[in-house]
Amino acid sequence: MISKEERYNAEVAVHASRHEAGLAALRDWLYMRRDEINTNWPNIVGDELSTLQGEAKMVMRLIKLIEHGPAIKSERSIPS
Fold first, then answer.
1. HEC assignment per residue over the chain
2. How far is CA 29 from the centre of its chain?
3. What's the predicted TM-score (pTM) here?
4. What is the secondary structure of 49-62 as a DSSP string?
5. How confident is the model over 6-63, as pLDDT tens digits?
């Protein structure tokens, strides 16, 4: 299991690399996937819809991570 601090450090590294070509291309791909999901979801039913909703949440979470940084706070920034 990954610790909160390890997760935070990994998320900071992703955010810090957001201007690199590979991560910029991934961000562009995530936006295209988001748009594709938004176009197709009205025609989907049942279990496929639930799967697509979960994928949409992950896509948005990754976009937010790349653009805005970690959603969790580091252990050092939480007062004791």
1. CCCHHHHHHHHHHHHHCCCCHHHHHHHHHHHHHHHHHHHHHHHCCHHHHHHHHHHHHHHHHHHHHHHHCCCCCCHHHCCC
2. 12
3. 0.84
4. HHHHHHHHHHHHHH
5. 999 999 999 999 999 999 999 999 999 999 999 999 999 999 999 999 999 999 999 9
